[in-house]
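for the recovery benchmark. tokens below, seq after
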């Protein structure tokens, strides 16, 4: 998983209301026991959502075939190229790539993110890759 402790990093996390996308703050400054929050900025206000820390994943900044942003731990598929796998962040080179269940790595600079559909994520669908 990408370093989601960085301030002002676009992330996604699961709250009591479901998935929210926004900016992650691991805890309130000077409040050690505060819950991790994702803040969603609207036109006139900012709303904070308490999220389960283990569900927080960073945004790749890359769009899928439908234009939806791809996040770390998303499960993606490109039927034309017969590639399906899990999106993972590489600390080594600071990039996102698709890792297939047989361990092959497909980097987004070699295979455009816009070729892929998001079909789930490893948090909600941990066994999905067994069937892809």
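predicted aa per position
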């Amino acid at each position: 998983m990408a370093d989601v402790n960085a301030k002002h990093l676009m992330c996604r996390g699961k709250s009591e209301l479901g998935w929210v996308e926004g900016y992650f703050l691991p805890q309130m400054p000077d409040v050690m026991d505060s819950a991790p929050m994702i803040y969603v900025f609207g036109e006139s206000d900012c709303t904070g959502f308490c999220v389960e820390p283990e569900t927080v994943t960073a945004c790749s900044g890359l769009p899928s075939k439908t234009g939806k942003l791809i996040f770390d731990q998303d499960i993606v598929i490109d039927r034309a190229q017969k590639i399906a796998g899990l999106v993972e962040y590489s600390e080594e080179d600071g990039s996102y790539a698709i890792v297939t269940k047989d361990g092959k790595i497909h980097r987004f600079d070699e295979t455009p993110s816009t070729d892929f559909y998001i079909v789930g994520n490893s948090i909600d669908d941990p066994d999905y890759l067994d069937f892809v």
